[in-house]
Design brief:
182 residues, 3 helices, 3 strands, 66% helix, rod-shaped
Length: 182
């Protein structure tokens, strides 16, 4: 697991940084977030614990030199070294637990968003399918009406042709009558 800045708006991965700010309330911040937060107030931005003692806020090297590792605990009693190591391990356990909780919260949030989007998509698909069905029914109805209109048009065309033939016959008969009268 990689340490991340505990500022919820930042969440920067701290493994690539050489320095970070650690608090006695077991939070860690990137240098930028720490400077911004602790310049205005000595209150932890993650849990709002008051940090008024001199060692409550400490800037530390996350990738210390070999010389530092060799000398930092030198001369301390073994029980004090074990207490320091125990506190350091507790810090990591806390950070791991907090990261797991944060990831679970993100998962739940994303799951809820996915569920809502899934419902919206299903609703949109259902509405679109209903619209398609309605349009298909309208199209089918219009095709039937078009066929009826074609038939009526054809029948009217035939009636017109018949009337035209009858008119022509009458016209021919009328002309014969007129010519026959003379």
């Amino acid at each position: 697991m990689e340490l991340r800045c505990n500022n919820i708006q930042c969440r920067k991965n701290l493994s690539s940084n050489s320095r970070a700010c650690v608090t006695t309330c077991s939070h860690i911040f990137c240098v930028d977030c720490a400077n911004q937060a602790f310049n205005s107030a000595l209150v932890c931005p993650a849990c709002e614990t008051s940090l008024t003692e001199s060692d409550d806020i400490v800037f530390t090297e996350l990738n210390p030199s070999e010389d530092y590792k060799s000398s930092v605990l030198a001369g301390l009693r073994p029980e004090l070294i074990m207490e320091i190591a125990s506190r350091a391990l507790s810090f990591w356990v806390y950070q791991t637990t907090q990261e797991a909780c944060f990831q679970e919260m993100l998962y739940k949030s994303l799951d809820e968003k996915y569920t809502n989007l899934d419902r919206q998509v299903a609703s949109i698909i259902r509405e679109a399918n209903q619209e398609i069905q309605t349009l298909r029914e309208k199209m089918s109805s219009m095709q039937k009406e078009q066929e009826l209109e074609k038939r009526r048009n054809h029948e009217l065309g035939e009636q017109y042709a018949e009337k035209t033939r009858q008119f022509q016959k009458l016209q021919v008969l009328g002309e014969k009558d007129i010519l026959g009268d003379f």
